[in-house]
Design a protein that fits this description.
Length: 479
Amino acid sequence: MSEQQPLLINTYNEVHCMHHPTGHSWIFAVSLTVGSMAGGGVLAIPEAVEQTGWAGIALLFIIAVINCITGVLLGKVMEQTPAEKMVDYASIGRHVYRGWAARWAVWASTFSQYVTLGGVSIIFLVLVGLLMHALVPKVPHGFWTLVVGVCVSFVVLPMKTLGEAKWMSAFAIVATAAVVFMSVVVSLLFRFSADYAAQESMFAHQSIKGSTLATGFSVFTFAFGATALFPNIYAHMSRKEDWDMSMYTAYGLSFMLLYLPIAVVGYYVYGAYLAQTSNMIDALSAFAASNTPVGGVVMAATALIIVHLLTALPIVLVPVLNTIERRIVKPDALLLLRLAIRAVTIASLTVIALFFPYFLDIISIVTCVSVSMSCYILPCLFYWQLIRPGVGMKILLVLIMLFGLLGSGVGIYVAIDELIQARPAPSVLLRSLILPLIMLFVRLFFSACSPRFRHLCDLTCLQDVSANPNPFKGLFTFT
């Protein structure tokens, strides 16, 4: 790299073309896949099982198998996509289809990847703020969310490729595995304690709950919804033929070692009480309140989950930032312009997280809008069009797509209704701060989709933010 080139250059194609040993192994793919999806899923899955009953365990297994299948199918599609053309999810759709169908595929793929990874980033920011508030109750969650957004910016701004985040995914997996172990041990200790026997009626169980099944579907899909990252992960592998092995390993480890233990033990111990909590950490606190040593373990588990989320955030942010940067600016663009685009994108996600601290509701909306598309719909359509499978495989593809459409259709209605009831957004706040930042993110999305929309990327839309003299009122009130 010459001295005249800026720091943040477009190196994605160089990394993608690494067919020589300097690329990453299949273990790298497993690490990024598990590290990006396990943290938030581990906390939310026990409550999702409560919303579905014991039948939720079977649904969790089915969703794990389906996501593994679609991951393998997407790998077959990526094998047929020329290396120099595949730079993100949208480029797969551009290669698979032609004409108006290609334009539709590019828009759908870009929307799916942007909203999925951007939504997951918001969820992680929300969750870190809430968990930090649980550790330090005197400091409001909004303050912690803002601090995390600023800190992550300093980590993400100079990152060029997803390969630089591989060590972060290793930390994330170790932290999550430790949290699962602690949660299972603490829960079982509580189950056989005198305190549990005295209030056992609170922890009832059901075989199946149909009324909230859609919410459970959304959480389970979110827990395995790393498909939006797969094109970026695949591009960094030196041996593309090991992709199937990485999928089987990633989903097998996630289900057997992380999700299944905490789902079974969490619902077995806490049962209906999980409906009164926002995540598994809250449920563990029921025992920790009367047991000081256990309280220390719960605090340690909380800190480890925070570590996971902080290390997973760059994994989901870098592909989005690289795509926006590559589509909007030229490779020789000024460093300050690239930094500005990244900073504005992260700031937009942070502000949205500040005003929507409702973990499960956000999971449901993100899942139903975009994760289901990237996990169930697009891989099946791409495989159908490019590989031309037989009748049996076509039936399987149709069943997978119907499964995703049915679950997401019902789930989005329930999720939006619950979110509106949870917190009607103040009109002044929406007009003065949230909407301008959302519109800015939409403009960046349009600009990334097509060069014809680059003129929409006008950063002056942030000028209206000053119209609200105190948009953070209530979120930063220290007690």
